[in-house]
Amino acid sequence: MSPLSFLSPRRLREAAIVTLGGLAGVALDSGEVANSGSTLRAIETRGELICGVDGNLVGFSSQNDDGDWVGFDADLCRAYAAAILGDPDDVRFVPVTTVERFQMLADGEVDLLVRNTSWTFARDVGQDFDFAGIAYFDGQGFMVPADLGISSARDINGARVCVQASTTTALNLDDYIAANNLDVDVIEYDTALGGLEGYVGGECDVYTNDLSSLAGLRVSLDNPAEHILLPDVISKEPLGPVIRSGDSHFHDVAQWVLYTLIAAEEFGVTSDNVAALAQNSRNREVLRMLGGQDDFGSRLGLEVDFAVTMIAATGNYGDIFNRNLGSGSELGLRRGLNAQWTEGGLLYSPPFR
Q1: In the chain, what is the greatest distance between 2 CA atoms, to the nearest angstrom?
Q2: Where is the Solute-binding protein family 3/N-terminal domain (predicted)?
């Protein structure tokens, strides 16, 4: 019998740190993390997940009056921390702008981007980044003052439009203007909040962004009812967690943590029943997902019961959606495309088999 055979999966990983080229307990610096292909090892050695978020987007990631991080993206970060480290609080939230987000990820200053980032060809191919899946199906829209009398995006001809720079949003706006032969004055801002301030301050007539972002920004205004979201959706914006390329192991972890949250909702696994189902579910796929059969957690380099720990801490995908974006939140967004595939939406996890 191997002298390590009695150790848990986590203890085995800790023992392997020396073999893999690092000293146990010594954190890798950002350059080493970016180039080592060992993101999971770096997180475990550090004892903390560093999650890049927006930081100023209500419903997704922002700080409440007590200084606590709240929102859909914030809770996804906590789910990753719970799955990897066993504790949803073992996460450091780092606000990053759209301009700096990819460079900070590339440099190893954050382990994971969970920051309303659209999955596109150019970002996925040849840019040293990988998307771990789609956490939110979004689309670009427009917000205008209710008294402006605009009912369609095609009516913005001659308007001044605020948009966030260095985003697919700005590129989509340019495409839309060209396709519809519009004469529009485009004003760019470094951040979503800057664009909102420009819009509120009268520097532009229209503000364009992802519809989920617009909904969150709208409720932060003094009089949300004075502003409307136009019905037009001019793009597909699949938003998802982003990691560095070259680390296939962490890519698997990032993917299957997200898929576990999605599948948990499909199978009715909640924070209240997850411990019981891990022991006595009659659904074999649920047992495999929760660690009762086939030891999928160890294959990912995580604890056997990582899914139980994570779901107990944050709930399933639907729980996270509802309390931050849906019926339990001030945004009150419908599930729409983000409903389960069994309910007419696009959410779908590959099978745990």
Answers
A1: 77
A2: 48-272
User: What tokens appear for 305 in the block?
Assistant: 């019961």
Pairing of β 62-63 and β 69-70: antiparallel
Residue 32 confidence (pLDDT)? 55
- Judge whether residue 36 has pLDDT over 60: no
Predicted TM-score of the model (pTM): 0.85
Distance, in Å, from the CA atom of 26 to the CA atom of 312, rounded to the nearest integer, reads 30
pLDDT of residue 98: 85
Higher pLDDT, 312 or 25: 312
Residue 95: both structure tokens together: 């606000």
Average pLDDT over residues 77-87: 98
CB neighbour list of residue 6: distance below 8 Å, 6 or more residues apart: none
Which tens digit of pLDDT belongs to each residue from 213-234?
899 889 889 899 999 999 999 9
CA nearest to 10, candidates 103, 70, 84, 105: 84
Read off the pLDDT of residues 160-207 as tens digits, 9 standing for 90 and up: 999 998 888 999 999 999 999 999 999 999 888 889 999 999 999 999
Task: Looking at 63-183, list the stretches that DSSP marks H as alpha helix, in order from N- to C-terminal side.
Answer: 72-85, 101-106, 121-124, 168-179
222: phi then psi, degrees, rounded to nearest 5: -60, -40
- The token pair at 151 is 């009912």
Strand partners, 95: 53
Asked if residue 79 lies in contact with residue 91, where contact means CB atoms within 8 angstroms, the answer is: no
- Helix (DSSP H) and strand (DSSP E) numbers for the chain: 15, 14
CA distance 280 to 180: 58
DSSP state letter for 184: -
d(CA 11, CA 273): 28
Which residues, including other chains, have CB under 8 Å from residue 2's CB and lie 6 or more apart?
none
Task: Specify whether the CB–CB gap between 130 and 68 falls below 8 A.
Answer: no
CB 46 within 8 A of CB 33: no
Distance CA 23, CA 12 (A): 14
Place of tokens 């409720």: 219
